[in-house]
Amino acid sequence: MADVGIRELLEAGVHFGHQTRRWNPKMRRFIHGEATGIYLIDLLKTQSLLRDAREFASALSHRGGTVLFVGTKKQARDAVKDVAENAGMPYVNHRWLGGLLTNYQTMSARIKRLHDLERYESEGQLELLPTRERLAAQADLAKLRANLGGVKNMQRVPDAMFVVDLKVEVTAVREAQRLRIPIIGLVDTNCDPDGIDFVVPGNDDAIRSCALITQAIGDVVGEGRRLFREEEERARREAEEQARLEAQEKARREAEEEAARQEAAREEERARERELVSAKGGGDRQAAEAQVAEAVQGGGRPHPDPKVTPQANEPEAKRTRKSGDEGPPAPKAAPVAEAEEKAPDAASTVETPVTDVTDPAAAPAEENAAPPTPEPTEETKS
User: How far is CA 216 from CA 3, 7, 168, 263, in A?
Assistant: First the structure.
């Protein structure tokens, strides 16, 4: 932050005060002398006080504060507008509306009306209104732009105020003093410096003088605002990066916890299977089930024993059906010897005749056996 030199102040005519008969005794400490009936301001004090005001404005804007520039007189109107717009700060360079600070809620409604009219104008809705309503809306828009155009983006009461000519902006100064808002003022020899936090003694009637002091304050305010925006953007990026890293770390922890839970579930399942196998008994069975489980996990199926033919693993009935379609085998005939052994004698045959054959296998043997010898009668004996 480069200081404003004495030569620059002299060239701008900051040292010229008002006539000696139009002075305020409270400005005595800032007066160097007089010449041709005009008081001369001490520029050394002006330079020192201007440095203090710039440091305050720079620190305030660096913290994100807002400085309201006020200068409604013709000599300062253009300079105030240009400097404030370059610094991105609100300004008032036409008429100060009473209550702009102390009744900001009502002024916010008027500012909202200004935004609405500007939107209607940009969208072309004003042209659709009847002639009388359109003219009234356009007149209202022009008036609001003149009085509130510089503060339409001000979201709250400013943190400080820079004023050119305290006598002209007496209403603005009183409102700021009531709200305890710090004031930086360009004070001439005919003004009262009481109540001004940062007094900058100087000529407030010359265009070059007003432009130099306003530019000196505006430069540091704009620089502080730029640094604040950069730090804010940097903090936002760091917060986003921190949030991204935290999200990644959280996702990693959740994945690890999920993997641990799955592993614990699998271990529990294996332990349950081992307990079940051990409860049923059989080490061979346990080994076989372990082999089957490994094959299932590997995506395959257990293979049969290579030493045993595939037909050996099939049921006997299935093999019989494959061997031929002869149907079930016929019962074998019993041997003759067995039939003779099983044949009953004649006495037993007469006494207990056989009425039913219960054994189907023995039935064919009895048919093949010799018929029993009949018992001799009286006729045969004779």
Answer: 9, 14, 21, 71
**Backbone dihedral region for residue 197 (phi beyond 0: left; psi -120 to 50: alpha; all else: beta):** alpha
The verdict on pTM exceeding 0.90 is no
Question: Is the same domain home to 61 and 114?
Answer: no
| Residue 158 in tokens | 């400013």
- The beta-carbon contacts of 37-40 under 8 Å, at least 24 apart in sequence, are 39/189, 40/15, 40/16
pLDDT at 312: 53
Provide the residue range defining the domain that includes 143.
102-156
Query: Is residue 68 situated within a structural domain?
Result: yes
Q: Please answer whether residues 183 and 197 qualify as being in contact, where contact means their C-beta atoms are separated by less than 8 angstroms.
A: yes
How many structural domains comprise the chain? 2
Q: Do residues 111 and 246 make contact, with C-beta atoms less than 8 angstroms apart? A: no
Burial class (CB in 10 A: 0-12, 13-18, 19+), 324: exposed
Residue 5 confidence (pLDDT): 86
Q: Which residues of the chain have pLDDT under 50?
A: 323-328, 330-370, 377-382
Find out whether 239 and 45 touch, Cβ atoms under 8 Å: no
pLDDT at position 359: 46
